[in-house]
């Protein structure tokens, strides 16, 4: 199992936008841009190929074959350094509370089986090491068919973080032919791959702490 561990300063931006039932972006929905989340963990979910073995009448092995491994998808966790009920409500379907000014200031996690029909496309921008030091630019990665489940996060040094578990649901990826969330993905279609983000190109400049209509994204 391959794991990418995002160290502090490593994960610098994350976008999550809802998908429609056909795997493309839901043009009637809204997504979210997260600047400098605390952590993004991702592990490829791989099932080992089955091994078939047949013994002969004398107890020896007369036939031995092993099937190919299968990449089923990916899973991991994401952690935010701030309390963000609007993002929580968007990706988990929880009830969001608002104050008198209309600002999101809380959420309620329902008891029982969580809704998981809504999937999301997620892009991340991560720092990586090149030649023993932090390289210029970013590793940009895209996941499709992602579902989120909230967990309690961690209480460290008297600060409560907000955390979620996530996993892909498998099946065809890559947003029904769209080139990533921002429609500028330059890599080949690969369910769990990534592309180098040109260091001369700025990170997305979308607002944080508010919903971003899919209709406002580059066509």
What's the arrangement of secondary structure elements?
Elements: E1 3-5, E2 11-18, E3 30-35, E4 39-47, E5 51-55, E6 61-66, E7 70-80, H1 85-92, E8 95-98, E9 104-108, E10 120-126, E11 129-130, E12 133-134, E13 138-151, E14 155-156, E15 159-160, E16 162-168, E17 194-197, E18 212-213
Gyration radius, rounded: 20 Å
End-to-end separation in angstroms reads: 36 Å
Number of helices: 1
The share of residues in helices is: under 10%
Mean pLDDT: 79
The coarse silhouette is globular
**What share of the residues does DSSP label as strand, in percent?**
over 45%
- Major β-sheet, in short? 10 strands, antiparallel
Structural class: mainly beta
Number of strands: 18
Poorly predicted tracts of residues: 1-9
Description:
- There is one protein chain.
- With 219 residues, the chain is mainly beta.
- It contains 1 helix and 18 strands.
- It has one helix spanning 85-92; strands at 3-5, 11-18, 30-35, 39-47, 51-55, 61-66, 70-80, 95-98, 104-108, 120-126, 129-130, 133-134, 138-151, 155-156, 159-160, 162-168, 194-197, 212-213.
- The strands form 5 sheets. Strands 1, 2, 3, 4, 7, 10, 13, 16, 17 and 18 form a 10-stranded antiparallel β-sheet that branches. A two-stranded antiparallel ribbon has the order 5-6.
- The two termini are 36 Å apart.
């Amino acid at each position: 199992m391959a794991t990418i561990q995002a160290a502090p300063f490593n994960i610098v931006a994350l976008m999550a936008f809802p998908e429609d039932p056909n795997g493309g972006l839901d043009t009637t929905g809204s997504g979210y841009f997260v600047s400098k989340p605390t952590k993004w963990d991702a592990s490829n979910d791989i099932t080992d190929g089955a091994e078939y073995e047949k013994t002969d009448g004398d107890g020896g092995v007369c036939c031995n074959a092993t099937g190919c491994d299968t990449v089923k998808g990916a899973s991991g966790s994401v952690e935010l350094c701030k309390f963000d009920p609007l993002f929580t409500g968007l990706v988990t379907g929880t009830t969001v509370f608002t104050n008198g000014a209309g600002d999101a200031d809380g959420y309620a996690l329902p008891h029982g089986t969580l809704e998981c029909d809504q999937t999301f496309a997620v892009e991340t921008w991560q720092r990586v090491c090149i030649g023993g030091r932090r390289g210029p630019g970013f590793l940009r990665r895209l996941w499709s068919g992602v579902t989120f489940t909230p967990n309690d996060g961690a209480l460290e040094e008297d600060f409560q973080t907000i955390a979620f578990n996530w996993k892909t649901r498998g099946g065809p990826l890559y947003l029904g032919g769209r080139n990533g969330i921002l429609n500028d993905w330059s890599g080949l279609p690969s369910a769990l791959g990534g592309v180098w983000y040109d260091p001369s190109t700025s990170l997305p400049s979308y607002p944080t702490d508010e919903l971003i209509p899919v209709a406002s994204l580059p066509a």
